[in-house]
Amino acid sequence: MTEAGRSAPGRGRRRWPLRRRLVAVVLVLLAAVAAAMGVVSTLALRSTLIGQIDQRLTAASQRAERAPERFADGEPDGDATPTAPPGTDVPPALVMPGQDVGTVNVYRMDGLTLSGYLDDDGVSQELTDDQLDALLGLTPDGTTATVALPGLGDYRAVSTTGDRGDLSITALPLADVTATVDTFLVVELAVVVVALGVGAWLATVLVRRELRPLDRVAATATRVAQIPLSRGEVELAERVPAQDTDPGTEVGQVGAALNQLLGHVESALTARHASETQVRSFVADASHELRTPLASIRGYAELVQRLPDDLPEDALRAMGRVESEARRMTALVEDMLLLARLDAGRDLDLTEVDLAGLAVDAVADAHVAGPDHVWTLDLGTEGAEPPAPVLGDEHRLRQVLLNLLSNARVHTPPGTEVVVSVRDEGDQVVLRVRDDGPGIPEPLLSRLFLRFARGDASRNRAAGSTGLGLAIVHAVVTAHGGTIEADGTPGATTFTVHLPHA
After folding, report:
1. Angle formed by the axes of helices 469-479 and 394-410, to 10°?
2. Beta strand 417-425 with 374-378: parallel, antiparallel or unpaired?
3. How many whole angstroms separate alpha carbon 297 and alpha carbon 318?
4. Domain limits of the chain?
5. Which of 237, 236, 247 has its CA nearest to residue 213?
C-alpha cells in the first residue's frame, strides 16, 4: 500500500456517529469502574475468608499440639473415641473432638510419623507420599502458608515444633473459600452485565435527548444547503431556533455561530444580487443604445460604397472594413442583449416545438454555410416514432442548433463529419451534435460555457466569433429547464442537450 493510501482519512473505515461514541465512552467507563470494584471486592472477600480459615487453623494447630499429652495416659477426655479404621495409625489430633471435615494432621516424634486427614464422612484417611512430602517441606516456624496437596487441592497449613522436639503440621482445605469466591464472581459478573445493559439503554436515551438540539442545527444547515445560491435573488429565511442558540451550551454556541454565518451570507448575497442587477441593467441599456448608432454606421458605409462617383480603391476598402466591423459589433451587441434578457429571467414564448424539424432546417442551412464539411442528420431508424415535442421558445431553440452547428463548422478543419441526432430517452428529448474534429483541450473544456471563453483568440477573431455562442446555448437550455454537456475527447467532440418533454 502506498503512503498516500495509508494516510488518506476515512478510507476503508467508517467512523461511528457521535451518539454511538458517547454511549461507548459511558459504557467503557462503567465497565472500568465495575471491573475495579469487582477486583477490589473479590480480593477483600478472599482475604476475609482466608483470615477466618487462618483463625480456625491456629485453633486446630493448638489442639493438635496438646493432643499427644492428653493421650499419654490412655483414652482422651470426654466421650471422643478414635475414628480411624482398625489397624491404622492415626495422628492423635484427628481423634480429638472439634476437628473439621478435611482437616489434615502430621505428627512426627523419635522417627515415628503419623499422618492423615478427615474425609467427608469424618473418617481418617492416610496421606500419600506426595501429599506428605508437600507438608514436610514447610518451615516449622508457626506461620501459615498455602500448600497444594496432590489429589486434595489447596490447603492452608502451619508447621510447629513442641518442647520435646516433636513436629506437628495442621492444614485446613481452601475448597469452601474457592467455591464462595467463584460464586461471588459469577453473581458479580451477572450484576455487571445487567448494569451495563441498563446503562447502555439509559445512556442512549439521555445522549439522544441531549443531542436533539444538534439535530435541529444540522437540519437547518441541510435546508440552507438545498437552496440554490448561484444566481438570482436569494432570501435565507432559515435560522436555528432561538432555543438552540443558548451561549451557555456547546450546541447553543454552534447554533448561534451558524445564525451569524447565515446573516453574513444573506447580506453578501443581497449585495451580490444588487451588483449583478446593476451590471445587467447597464449591459442591456448599453446594448440597446448601441444598436441605433451601429445601424447608422452600417447604413452610411453602404451608402458611401454606392455613390455614383468613383472612389479611390483605398476608400472603398476602408468603407468595406467599416461595414464588416459594424456587422461584427452588431452581432456582439445582439448576443449581449440576449444574455442580459435571459439573466433577467424574461419570459420565453413557450409553445410545443418539434426539435427534429428544427434539426432538419439547421442541417440544411449548415450544408449551405459549410459545404466543405460532411453534415449528417440522424433521426433514428426508418418507420420509428418521431421524437416527442418539447415545450419551449422555437426561436431560441433554433438559435441553440445554429450556434452548435456554427461552432462545429468554425472550429474544425474541412472534411470533418458532423452528425446531428435527436432521440427520445425516457421523459426527455436528447439532442447530440458530434464531430470527428481535433477535440477540445482540457483547459478550455472546464470553462467552455463561460462568456467570452475562447481557445484560439486569433482564429476566433478572424472567424468573427464573439466568444458568446456557447454561453448563449447554455443560458437558453437552462432557461428551458434542460441541461447541456460537452465531451471533448481527442478525435471527437460531442455536445449533448437534454430537454423535458412537453
Report:
1. 150
2. parallel
3. 13
4. 21-181, 221-346, 351-500
5. 247
User: Cβ neighbours of residue 382 under 8 Å, at least 6 residues apart?
Assistant: none
Confidence at residue 463, expressed as pLDDT on a 0 to 100 scale: 47
**Domain 21-181 fold:** Beta-Lactamase (3.30.450)
Pairwise CA distance, residues 60 & 484, whole Å:
101
The contacts of residue 104 (CB under 8 Å, 6+ apart) are 115, 116, 117, 127, 131, 135, 149, 152, 155, 157, 169, 170, 171, 172
Residue 232 sits at the vertex; the CA angle it makes with 230 and 235, to the nearest 5 degrees, is 90
In terms of DSSP bridges, do strands 417-425 and 483-487 run parallel, antiparallel, or are they unpaired?
A: unpaired
pLDDT in tens, 175-199: 889 999 999 999 999 999 999 999 8
For residues 318 and 370, what is the distance between their CA atoms, to the nearest angstrom?
Answer: 28
pLDDT digits (tens, 9 = 90+) for 21-60: 888 898 999 999 999 999 999 999 999 999 999 898 888 8
> What architecture (CATH level 2) is domain 221-346?
Orthogonal Bundle (1.10)
Residue 353, Cβ neighbours under 10 Å: how many? Answer: 22
Closest CA to 135 of 64, 47, 59: 64
Report yes or no: 202 and 30 within 8 Å, Cβ to Cβ. Answer: no
DSSP state of 94: G
Beta bridge partners of 486: 495
Q: What 3-state DSSP class applies to 354?
A: coil
What architecture (CATH level 2) is domain 351-500? 2-Layer Sandwich (3.30)
Q: Is 383 helix (H, G, I), strand (E, B) or coil?
A: coil
- CB-based contacts of 54: which residues, under 8 Å, 6+ apart? 144, 156
Strand partners, 160: 168
